[in-house]
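Second attempt. The first submission of Lysine--tRNA ligase had a stray character pasted in from the spreadsheet, which I only caught after the job came back as garbage. Lesson logged: always re-copy from the clean sequence file. Corrected sequence (509 aa) follows.
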Amino acid sequence: MTENTAAPTSATPADGDAEPTIEEIAEQKQVRLDKRERMLAAGLEPYAIGLAVTDSIPAVRERFPELDADVQTGERVALAGRIVFSRNTGKLCFATLQSGDGARIQVMVSLAEVGDESLAQWKEFTDLGDHVFVEGEVITSRRGELSIMVSRWAIAAKAILPLPTLHKELNEETRVRQRYLDLIVREQARQTVRARALAVASLRQTFASHGYLEVETPMLQTMHGGASARPFVTHSNAFDTELFLRIAPELFLKRAVVGGIERVFEINRNFRNEGADSTHSPEFAMLEAYQAYGDYHQMADLTQEMIQNAALAVAGSHVVTWADGTEYDLGGEWDRLSMYESLSEAAGVEVTPETPMSELKKMADAVEIEIDHPLPGKYVEELWEHYVKGSLTRPTFVMDFPVDTSPLVREHRTKRGVVEKWDLYVRGFELATAYTELVDPVIQRERFVAQASLAAGGDLEAMQLDEAFLTALEHGMPPSGGMGMGIDRLLMALTGLGIRETILFPLVK
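This time the job returned cleanly.
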């Protein structure tokens, strides 16, 4: 018997391959419920507590990496796992237990070790999917497989519903809606959870090495701001007022900088009431950071360092291997190119901040891009995506955006009509963005007023005029650099997966 062997039992379809029908699942559920009742009648607990687990399956496998066949180690262990294989034969029953991280070990329940009653109960009450506790000696079978010769066992948690067929790939709908099954069945799902945890821990370590403090800011806000996005709206009964789920933590983090927390970051959830696709989710994890006396160049250096450190933490190298086997190099110094200059070169016509709206509309019409927006900068950005975005292969910082689409960004110190902002593109999508922050409260108020005019004209993504934030800014915010990066998208860059695979429990309709 091998670890990955699967065999028909009461928990799998008779042919061992086809998924059970709804009627078959209902029948199996009733069979298991009946077993639960018989266990209770026999004085057995189907959901036991106080089990003396002293070892784990991975630890036992690590302690005994290579043993000859038919060896008795004399070492006793007590561990638990989920049954993913079961074969009951005569006086000796075999099962494979799986731990949460996917590690497996064989257990052997024999008449000679546990006695008639316990063996009969194993055969009668256990099913695939059950969590069981076993205590016994570490041995190897005659075929050399590491095993536990059980002397005592108990059902830790009775599974009322059967597992899916373990050797078949789950469809995407099941993976997303029932992620717990995905984690049981698929190693890639477990690896993605571990990769996310390693990446986030690495981000925090990088920030700590640069003297940043982590804070938490409100998710329920009386005004939505910090980004151009459509918010979710809710109502507070206690305050009898309309509230918004935050679209960005920016305006509160800047308040922290005003208050003297000069290097600050937050990793938390954002909510945007917009579309969902392979790179967008209405609820997503976001990192934002601000550094007093920094600018967007320093934020680019920091962002590159953070992502490269995360790659090392997850993959052990700056070259990451995606789920489809493709290798992607995140190492070295990343390219930095100008939005206007790269667009001009790709389109074959010079585009500048002074290019009139009529010319931009002609360019959009010529390549059949439909844009319905009053700002010339929106046309520039859409044209850039059409002409340039698809040609980027390496990680690239796209620098210096139109001023009219960036209301929270400082104007460029030497170039008129653009702001000191970059977007980082990795794997064909925007991964992060950064600004040299606008800290002049007079200009910020003018920008907010312009945004309010857009909102009055029906732009649902326009920002509101936030007097509380302006009041904070009027107390003096030092010149600063700020950056934001989606954690889910970082995992996309490191693993090659879509956004719904990198979120443990994504929102689905």
